[in-house]
């Protein structure tokens, strides 16, 4: 009996059935970002690259962020780990690596339980030499 429970639990973990949402079964909602473009402007090399995308769940069901992909020199520092209630405001915090001089033209892609997936979030600006 113990072996059967272990096999069953292992199977559930392998299929992702434990502790994860099923995107096909989650009711759809809507989302509205304050802005889908984050403009760093001109930022000095080595500066603090931490910024946030703020959004609101404008629908009638909890908003679930499934995945966030980054195509840039940035880290996703935080995102809502629990569903965002209707009319609740939340944020996705990122950190762009400002160690390289040059233009910032990058995209972060967000997948959630919304009708129009994915949501592209853009980063723009320019890392300039440090002014001593």
How would you characterize this protein structure?
With 132 residues, the protein is mostly beta strands. It contains one helix and eight strands. Strands 1-3-6-5 form a four-stranded antiparallel beta sheet, with no helix packed on it. Strands 2-8-7-4 form a four-stranded mixed beta sheet, with no helix packed on it. Strand 7 and strand 8 form a beta hairpin. The longest helix has 14 residues. It starts with a helix and ends with a strand.
Task: Briefly say what this structure is.
With 132 residues, the chain is mainly beta. It has a single domain, classed as Immunoglobulins (Immunoglobulin-like, Sandwich). It has one helix spanning 2-15, and strands at 31-33, 37-44, 50-57, 65-70, 74-78, 89-96, 102-112, 119-128.
Q: What's the number of structural domains?
A: 1
Low-confidence stretches: 1-19
Radius of gyration: 19 Å
CATH topology: Immunoglobulin-like
Largest sheet: 4 strands, antiparallel
Beta-sheet strand percentage? Answer: 35-45%
Note the gap between the termini: 70 Å
CATH level 1 class label: Mainly Beta
Mean pLDDT: 86
Number of helices: 1
CATH architect. name: Sandwich
What is the number of strand segments? 8
CATH fourth-tier homologous superfamily? Immunoglobulins
What is the H-and-E element order?
Answer: HEEEEEEEE
Record the strand order, biggest sheet: 1-3-6-5
Per the principal axes of the C-alpha atoms, what is the gross shape?
elongated
Percent range for helical residues? 10-25%
